[in-house]
Amino acid sequence: MIRATGLSKRFGDARVLDGVDLTVRQGERVALLGLNGAGKTTLMRCLLGLIPFDGGLAVAGLDVRTRGREVRSRLGYVPQRAPHFDGTLEEIVDFFARLRGADPAAVAGGLASLGLDLAEHGRKPVRTLSGGMLQKVLLALALGADVPLLLLDEPTANLDPRARLEFLRALKQVGADTTVLLASHRLTDVAAVADRLLVLHGGAIAFDGSLTDLWRRVGAAQTLWVKLPTGDRDAARRYLEERCRLTALRGNGAALGVKVEHHARADVLVELRGAGFTVEDFWTETPSLHDLLENAMRPPEGA
Amino acid sequence: MSGRTSLFVQRELAGSLRARWFLAYAAIFLLAGVLLTTFGLADSAIHGYRGFAKAFAGLVHLALLFVPLMALFPATAAIAEDRESGALEYVLAQPVTFGEVYAGKWGGVGVAVVLALTVGFGAAGGVAVLRGVPPGLVALLYLFVLLLAMGFVSLGLCFSTIAHSRARATTMGILTWLVLVALGTLGVMVAFVRWGLPASVLIVWSFVNPIEAFRIGVVCAIDPDLSLLGPVGADIVQSLGSGGTVALAGVSLLAWAVVPGLIGWRLFRRVR
């Protein structure tokens, strides 16, 4: 669906993309990660044909540089911040649906399935709608034309938690054949949507794999909180430190916090149960995506 | 025109006609035009053709004041405002070409301005014809008004392309209009008196300036002997003849209606 070969983009002296090679197959759900300025949005803008670039870039076999309009007719785009439009919601839906060659009724149906009834909100000026409502409108417009590729550029960045969950829920309804490229700063969004992660760093792809692979690579320790009966806490701490060589962090009421790598979380629980401790509850405190990426970008020890 | 371009034309037209200031401006132009023509032409009963010509010249100056600003405001907003709000990037992410978006904006603003001027000028022109002004003259003035408007639409769109905000684009447009006004009759006279520039240079100077080209062309069409032409205008009429002056003024305005818009289109593709 997407093929980039030696994709490069400079802004003045800054080389934002530096010979990116990338292939995304149809139906893949890919998250594009990177620290601020890593080139995520630039890559999206290249895919949309909005900026000139060097190297090769094709979507569905079509060269973005020479067949931009055809490429854009095959993709739906949801930007980070919903733009301000003049006019009512009904007018905007009608205008963009017709521009995309989509049936306005289908877009209205999509909006209804996202919990936004056009009959109720259609006469409202777009400027009065909340950011969450607008993002839903853009998603419905992107989906309305039944496109094979969705480009989502940090679409939940400006949404409140409830709107974000609703947006992610809507995204899960996207057909299995639809390819999704999601740029995001939120680990929860990435985990909910993507089965493949691309980490951009220094203008190139520094990591390509699953979220589990990323955890494994960075070896990032999470804090596993285990709730035990009050009397068992100290004994469980000693057991983990001596037998499992794990550092038991601290107590938090009845819970015990243990630093553990992502893939070894279940082992800790099994060990505790095996030693006769009663695990009443457990939960994981994950590092932020920013911390994870900083770890991922750090060169391996001894390198 | 492609279907997509026509969608942009419709949307831009609707946006312009929704703007209250635009409607207010059109209404003032309508009212002022009708009043000026009605009361100005009453004078022609006493002073004959000269009286009518002077009244009509007032309409010309009203157009010089209103038409450029009426065209500049929506044109300078057309692209810069969308860029500022993020709407432009979203629009360009749709299956459209840069040319379709630009042509749609150009056409939409142009049609809105032409419609508003047609209503305003149509009423004033109607009164003038009823009072005995030759319809051909009214039609010529109308054509020149439209060309002047399209020139400033074209110029405004060009500024809108390069400016990062609507405010900046509008400021650029108004400053340019002020400079063109200043370089008009007053500027030509200063250049003539102070530097003693030859007539050929002053002719070029006058016709390169759309404000001056409009003024000289229309006043010449009304009455080539009219003192309103000014010394340079009179010299031009003497050199080119009445028909030549009007034709050259028309060509100048036509060039202004097209060239800045094409430059804007080139820049639009480059500064995307």
CATH superfamily of the largest domain in chain A: P-loop containing nucleotide triphosphate hydrolases
Give the oligomeric state of the chains in this entry, treating copies of one chain as homo and distinct chains as hetero.
heterodimer
- Biggest sheet details of chain B: none
- Helical residue percent of chain B? over 70%
- The low-confidence parts of chain A are none
Residue-averaged pLDDT of chain A: 84
How many distinct folded domains of chain A?
A: 2
**SSE ordering of chain B:** HHHHHHHHHHHH
**Rg of chain B, nearest Å:** 19 Å
- Unreliable stretches of chain B (pLDDT < 50, length at least 5) are none
Strand content of chain A: 25-35%
> What's the level 1 CATH class of the largest domain in chain A?
Alpha Beta
Topology readout:
The complex is a heterodimer of chains A (303) and B (272).
Chain A: E1 2-11, E2 14-24, E3 29-33, H1 40-47, E4 54-59, E5 62-63, H2 68-73, E6 75-78, H3 89-100, H4 104-113, H5 118-121, H6 131-144, E7 149-153, H7 161-172, E8 179-183, H8 187-193, E9 196-201, E10 204-209, H9 211-218, E11 221-227, H10 233-243, E12 248-252, E13 255-261, H11 265-274, E14 281-285, H12 289-297
Parallel strand pairs in A: 3-8, 3-9, 6-7, 7-8
Antiparallel strand pairs in A: 1-2, 1-4, 4-5, 9-10, 11-13, 11-14, 12-13
Helix pairs in contact in A: 4-6, 6-7, 9-12
Chain B: H1 3-18, H2 20-42, H3 44-47, H4 49-85, H5 87-92, H6 98-130, H7 135-162, H8 166-182, H9 185-195, H10 199-208, H11 210-222, H12 230-270
